[in-house]
Amino acid sequence: MESYSDKVMDHFRKPRNVGAIDDADGVGKEGNPMCGDIMELSIKVKDDTIIDAKFRTFGCGAAIATSSMITEMIKGKSIQDALKISNRAVAEALDGLPAKKMHCSVLAADALKKAVDDYREHRKAL
Amino acid sequence: MKRIYLDYAATTPADPRVIDEMLPFFTEHFGNPSSVHSFGQETKSAVEAARETVSGLLGAAPDEIVFVSGATEANNTALKGTAFAKRDKGNHIITSAIEHHSVSETVAALKKEGFRITNLPVDRYGMVDPDDVKKAIDEKTILISIMHANNEIGTIQPIAEIGKIARERSITFHTDAVQSLGHIPVNVDDLDVDLLSGSSHKFYGPKGVGFLYVRKGTKLTALLFGGDQEKRRRAGTHNTPGIVGTAAAARIAHESMAEESVREAVLRDRLIKGITGAVQDASLNGHPTMRLPNNANISFHFIEGESILLSLDMEGIAASSGSACTSSTLEPSHVLLAIGLSHEVAHGSIRFSLGRWTTDEDVARVIEVLPGIVSRLRVMSPLFAERTSHGIVQR
Ligand code: FES
Question: Which domains are present in chain B?
């Protein structure tokens, strides 16, 4: 098929952190402009650190794997550090993606930015 | 794990009997059919015998068959060949929104050359309305090209009716019969076509070979120039093993068609019923009855096709998808959009195409594993979550 790396297939088979956090501090929903796939990421934040993250994704194998991977990567990170994670970094953490599938990883990075924006909005409102 | 192949519409394995007939033509009988010596004459007669077989099965005359490299070449030759040959008569071409890319891309190229194109819509079953064809015709129309059966959703078009319309007006009529040949009866007079494309690897023959039927008297400019093979309609040394294999495959498919098409249709219906019965919000695409005996195309709402294919592949099951994620353009299938599916639903469609070696057990296994695959992916899907939280059930 797509010749995905073992890591991608592992995250596709056993995606980590699937779902939505009930009392999330920030939720980001993003559509992929290239193919129309959708990812929703919710985060729980304490003292500016992401203590929990969950995702739901409508998309290809790469989209699901990058979604799963980014939840793992941001957990325990400060908001600032989490925002430094690029889509490239997510792809690298999965031992790479086929060239045709690089655009899928943008979805995860964008959803994260949206979730953080949402979190900051909420905090401002408080 | 036993692997299950349900992608026969993409390609079929060559039948071992076909290979047996081909093999001597790689070694023993290697002569160039264009040579005058005995080596050449031997293979020449094999090519001509193959031509006779193929034409006979189609109800055509032998010299109406032009052997080519496959359906892409056949379709390109039919469209460009007619357009260029009849340029002085007009510049209008009628085709449909659901043609294979080897037709639609060729037509798009002709548009750049100054031809005017009408792309007929289809109804929700993927059917072209012959009345639409009639209405689209004007005094400049030189060519109509409508496929016989659709490769993605299996809908069989009213070709004979369209053929009659074209015949009455002396407009050249081409049909791409790649998916129907060898699976359902195809007769050039019944269908009333002037040009018809076929590809051997879709009916258990070898890859890299096919043919174009050209009704006697049809004006056609060649695509390839060089030697005078195929009565100068297609230059290039004959692919003798491929041509011999084409005839063998066509003959075998013809002999078994009556029985095999019924067998496959029974399995197809079992598969469709089984899946739509076991999985909620799964809907059949294409026509309920006017469809190829081996095609089942199903949309699994709220989830995406590539992830379904990957999950099936993990179970050893091979199928294909109309999802944007599996296409190089990242656009969902133009066929599924043409029948009115939304972007998301088109995204989640899977084509199962059955064939000669598909068994009851294969079908049962797909029905057994699919519900688990679908529900696993739905748990991950934000679209499914929205649907459940709003309590809407889309049909
Ligand atoms: S997210 Fe659509 S192709 Fe990967």
Answer: 4-10+258-390 (3.90.1150.10), 16-253 (3.40.640.10)
